[in-house]
From TrEMBL:
The chain crosses the membrane at residues 12-30. The lineage of its organism: Eukaryota, Metazoa, Chordata, Craniata, Vertebrata. Its main location: membrane. InterPro entries: Ig-like_fold (IPR013783), SRCR (IPR001190), SRCR-like_dom_sf (IPR036772). It comes from Haplochromis burtoni. Signal peptide: none annotated. This is SRCR domain-containing protein. PROSITE patterns: SRCR_1, SRCR_2.
Length: 1090
């Protein structure tokens, strides 16, 4: 018979292997060609294999030897029924790379301690599949059928089909489904056509298709895939074959699967694995062979991930070497099979998706309520549910809708334990996708002396409260905690168990927040429970518990609100005084109080009024320490809300919000050869000046700085400490401005003091220095004002014409002048002067970036953002308009394909079509602002001749640059005792001398001494770069602030330096000891204003 013939053939080759399905099919066994009990022929007798230590690596060898694809499961305990006769092998141990099962380590043929109740088996994927023509995880798809490798036709080939191939090969998720023989044409058979997979099949041959060898294709239509190159899998011996998002971690390297040592294994490492496998967030990083010990190679040890890597092998590790580990230390992960995703989602808020049948799918919002959301939040360890969102609040999902009519009691441990209609049964569309907003990882403040808004930080995880280690703990971290608890701003980040030592778990260590995160758990850290700390290092916070809010409020001015009984409420203005405001300003670190506002100056609040008839002495540390009628006791309406205006800011704000005295100087330009509008960028934070790192620093960033300083437009963003290296902190790194922000701190950045920069990368700016602005209308139309002698003033319209307006428009980068208006055309009701002017400009400026003044990438300013122009149909006529508009002569060429480098951000114009006679590029035909089908690889540019107009522009530029080269002078005052200081006391009747000096290369100028108490200026010619101003008899009229400027007249004009830093002189009589102490206190207060 056929069976006897095959048996005779196999017995001639005693080490051949076959799965017993071949002989049991006739007996009605449930096994198939590629799954069943493993039997081998030895000494002309078939026998089984014992399942002692039988694992997926052993099964992999069997499946490969049988041309049955990859191993899906290594079955034990006679899963396919008990065999008979011999048991040939026991304690088999394969690495997974062997060609035959008998090459693996074992106890010897026939040596065992088993019965047939322990017969081993395998489940293989079936018809083998491979990728050719590229890499291990990308290439042309080929399958092995009828002993021949053949290709797959690309008819209807899509991402679902590719997903099945990638998963079958252990190559992660599908990134693209390649068609049209992208990886080259194959040869021979075309085995499959019209493949249609749902995406959840275990093998490509399980998908619908026309049948093996039935097709209407050529090899020019060979299908391919690009997989994520995951090369990682999870093995759970107790759950083999099921949806796997938890198990022992194994990676594929050097053609062999191996495990990962658990030394140092933490939640950040697990997070990378879960994301790489497209599972939900990591819930646990297991060690000590939690999912059983593997066999063979241990590939990685001392893995250290930040949590943001795309692959485990991208993390730091000791290299692919034999580690000092045993398989009893094998690492594993437990990933969630539920996630929150979608636009504007966070770790704890988003569209609900569950992982089922190897695919992510959404949940329909029919009957969706807070109980259902509660289960989701608890399952993700995200605190309690705040809202159950409906109607695709976080955007519409794609693909499968897994659940509908979900009904939870709220106590279930998993959403799938709730009642529902069954997986995939629904009557919904993705417009009804459900979502959840959770409170986040629960957090509280505890300990000795703690309050609602100050105490030891504790978070709740795995049903246990635990502390946070204070290593690296700073104000940014505290800011996140205070905001998460709705406790105002952070005043202090405490360490060393300031509020007493906690007990139990220490959940977080080496926390590193930028300060903008919504939850402490969103910050970088070493992983939950990973630390080497004791409770003597427990971290804490002191939050303000007070805030300033309301219309046009800033960080240091606004309606006063306090946090009490977990509710924000206002303060009544009965008896509200400067002393009360002083306490608020000091508490917030905002300097002295300038004004105590009443009558809801910053708008009316809502809800509770907590305090009334507040009476502070001014020395209290908190408003609640002042006398008042008691919390909630008042006789006020919301129209009587109290507010404050403080003098200072904790970090610089817009000039319009802080220029009440001299407290705007929260950004400055410094360094070698710096001027008022060029220099190293420095910002003031935490009472210290610091620099900005030049990573990503570009013209948009410089534009924000220049505008903030009223220095016109940005000409260049110098890098690499162009103006010399600064010192102290580097406050910002990775700054990315669109160009429309009012302040550099409104731009995206990496936060303060957490960067990898040194001062040799300090960023700088060169601004046009234009001291001109338009007010009363739009950016490019309005009343003309110029900045002179530290004051803005207007221009009279006598003789004002279109030529004058043209200069203004060009200086402001506003195109050409359309009209020169007169007679206070833009005067507001509160403006009394009639001697004003305004020019109307087109309002869409153009500039060239990436090369020279008259050649470069074309960029236009629209909607307050600089953007590029696409090169579709870009030609010499278009370039001609640009060159003429910029006064750069004639166009020599129209550059395409990002010849001057790729821009960033918006692409404003596409399909531009100019006749060449237009005055401005935006007058040409185009598809509309922001409408395009381009990438920045197609950014358009121009090369202009320069010509006579170029010379004029160059002279203009040199004029501006020249005007800012004068350095800031120094001023000092010498008293009779020889002391030099910024605040100096001089006895009445004594003499004193001011000295102004500089190191400027332009000698022979004049120093002007400026006195704040008078309009009079003293001037003296510079001799050896200095000048002295003597006052022989000090009088009380000499009290005030003094500064000096340096002025020089050259053939090109008269140029003035920036003012020196102010110095304060106080004239005193000889006082008693008591009087003297009072005076010194007053001087110290006034010193804060200098």
């Amino acid at each position: 018979t056929t069976g006897n013939t095959i048996f005779h053939f196999l017995t001639e080759f005693p080490y051949l292997i076959w799965v017993c399905l071949f002989f049991l099919l006739l007996a009605g066994s449930l096994s198939t060609r590629c799954s069943g009990r493993v039997e081998i022929a030895y000494k002309k007798t078939w026998g089984t294999v014992c399942d002692d230590n039988w694992d997926i690596n052993d099964a992999e060898v069997v499946c490969r030897e049988l041309n049955c694809g990859t191993a899906l499961n290594a079955t034990q305990s006679a899963h396919f029924g008990e065999g008979r006769g011999e048991i040939w092998l026991d304690d088999v141990s394969c690495s997974g790379s062997e060609r035959s099962l008998t090459e693996c380590q074992h106890r010897g043929f026939g040596i065992h301690s088993c019965t047939h109740s322990k017969d081993a088996g395998v489940s293989c994927s079936g018809v083998p599949v491979r990728l050719s023509g590229s890499t291990l995880c990308s290439g042309r798809v080929e399958i092995f059928y009828n002993n021949i490798w053949g290709t797959v036709c690309d008819d209807n080939w899509d991402i679902n089909d590719a997903e099945v191939v990638c998963r079958e090969l252990g190559c992660g998720t599908a990134q693209s489904a390649a068609v049209s023989a992208r990886f080259g044409e194959g040869s021979g058979s075309i085995w499959l056509d019209d493949v249609s997979c749902s995406g959840s099949e275990r093998s490509l041959t399980e998908c619908q298709h026309r049948g093996f060898g039935t097709h209407d294709c050529t090899h020019s239509q060979d299908a391919g895939v690009v997989c994520s190159d995951a090369q990682i899998r999870l093995i759970d011996p107790d759950n083999s074959g099921a949806t796997l998002c938890s198990g022992r971690v194994e990676i594929y390297h050097n053609n062999r699967w191996g495990t990962v040592c658990g030394g140092g294994w933490d939640l950040n490492d697990a997070e990378v694995v879960c994301r790489q496998l497209d599972c939900g967030p990591a819930l646990n990083a297991t060690r000590s062979a939690h999912f059983g010990g593997g066999t063979g190679q241990i590939w990685l040890d001392d893995v250290s991930c930040s949590g943001s890597e795309s692959s485990l092998t991208d993390c730091q590790h000791r290299g692919f070497v034999i580690p000092y580990c045993g398989h009893y230390q094998d690492a594993g992960v437990i990933c969630s099979e539920i996630r929150l995703t979608g636009p504007q989602s966070t770790r704890c808020s988003g569209r609900v998706e569950i992982y089922h049948n190897n695919r992510w799918g959404t949940v329909c919002d029919d009957g969706w309520d807070l109980n259902d959301a509660e289960v989701v939040c608890r399952e993700l360890e995200c605190g309690s549910a705040l809202e159950a969102t409906q109607s695709a609040h976080f955007g519409e999902g794609t693909g499968q809708i897994w659940l509908d009519d979900v009904t939870c009691s709220g106590s279930e441990s998993s959403l799938t334990q709730c009642q529902h209609r069954g997986f995939g049964t629904h009557d919904c569309t993705h417009q009804k996708d459900a979502g959840a907003i959770c409170s986040g990882v629960p957090i509280r403040l505890a300990g000795s002396g703690s309050t609602q808004c100050s105490g030891r930080v504790e978070i709740y995880r795995q049903k246990t409260w635990g502390t946070v280690c204070g290593r690296g703990w700073d104000l940014n971290d505290a800011e996140v905690v205070c905001r998460q608890l709705d406790c105002g701003s952070a005043l202090k980040a405490t360490q060393s168990a300031h509020f007493g030592e906690g007990t139990g778990d220490i959940w977080l260590n080496e926390v590193s927040c930028s300060g903008s995160e919504s939850s402490l758990a969103d910050c970088q850290h070493r992983g939950f429970g990973t630390h080497s700390c004791g409770h003597g290092e427990d971290a804490g916070v002191i939050c303000s518990g007070i805030r300033l809010a309301g219309h046009q409020s800033t960080q240091c001015s606004g309606r006063v609100e306090i946090y009490h009984n977990k509710i924000w409420g206002t303060v009544c203005d009965h008896g509200w005084s400067t002393e009360d405001a002083e306490v608020v300003c000091r508490h917030l670190g905002c300097g002295p109080a300038l004004n105590a506002t009443q009558s809801a100056h910053f708008g009316e609040g809502t809800g509770q009024i907590w305090l009334d008839e507040v009476s502070c002495s001014g020395s209290e540390s908190s408003l609640t320490e002042c006398q008042h009628r008691g919390f909630g006791t008042h006789s006020c309406g919301l129209g009587e809300d109290a507010g404050v205006i403080c003098s200072g800011e904790t970090l610089f704000k817009s000039r319009t919000s802080c220029c009440l005295l001299d407290f705007c100087n929260r950004i400055r330009l410094s360094g070698h050869q710096s001027g008022r509008c060029s220099g190293r960028v420095e910002i003031y934070n935490k009472k210290r000046w610091g620099t900005v790192c030049d990573d990503g620093w570009d013209l948009n960033d410089a534009e924000v700085v220049c505008r903030h300083l009223d220095c016109g437009t940005a000409l260049a963003p110098p890098k690499e400490a162009h103006f010399g290296e600064g010192s102290g902190p580097i406050w910002l790194d990775g700054v990315a401005c669109s160009g429309s922000e009012r302040s550099i701190i409104q731009c995206q950045h990496r936060g303060s003091e957490k960067n990898g920069c040194t001062h040799h990368k300090d960023a700088g700016v060169i601004c046009s220095g234009a001291r001109i602005r338009l007010t009363g209308s739009t950016r490019c139309s309005g009343r003309v004002e110029i900045f002179y002698n530290n004051t803005w003033g207007t221009v009279c319209d006598d003789g004002w014409d279109i030529n004058d307006a043209e200069v203004v428009c060009r200086e402001l980068n506003c195109g050409t002048a359309l009209k020169a208006t007169k007679s206070a055309h833009f005067v507001h009701q509160n403006v009394l002067s009639y001697c004003l002017l305004c020019s109307l400009c087109p309002g869409v400026p153009v500039r060239l970036s990436g090369s020279t003044l008259c050649s470069g990438r074309v960029e236009i300013f629209y909607n307050n953002i600089w953007g590029t122009v696409c090169d579709d149909n870009w030609d010499i006529n278009d370039a001609e308009v640009v060159c003429r508009e910029l006064g750069c002569g004639m166009a020599q060429s129209a550059a395409v394909s990002a010849r001057f480098g790729e821009g960033s951000g918006s692409i404003w114009l596409d399909d531009v079509s100019c006749s060449g006679s237009e005055r401005s590029l935006t007058e040409c035909q185009h598809r509309g602002f922001g409408t395009h089908d381009c990438t920045h690889s197609k950014d358009a540019g121009v090369v202009c001749s320069g010509g006579a107009s170029f010379s004029i522009e160059l002279l203009y530029l040199l004029f501006i640059l020249f005007s800012v080269l004068l350095q800031q002078p120094r001023i000092s005052v010498t008293s009779p005792d020889g002391r030099l200081a910024k605040v100096i006391e001089i006895m009445k009747g004594y003499s004193f001398i001011f000295t102004c000096s500089n190191n400027d290369r332009y000698s022979g100028g004049v120093f002007n001494l400026i006195y704040s108490g008078s309009n009079m200026k003293h001037n003296k010619t510079s001799v050896n770069s200095s000048a002295s101003f003597s006052f022989p008899v000090a009088d009380f009229g000499h009290e005030g602030r003094y500064s000096c400027v340096y002025e020089i007249t050259l053939t090109e004009g008269t140029f003035t330096s920036p003012e020196a830093e102010w110095i304060y002189v106080s004239v005193i009589c000889k006082l008693s000891k008591h009087q003297n102490s009072i005076f010194l206190f007053a001087v110290s207060v006034m010193g804060q204003f200098t």
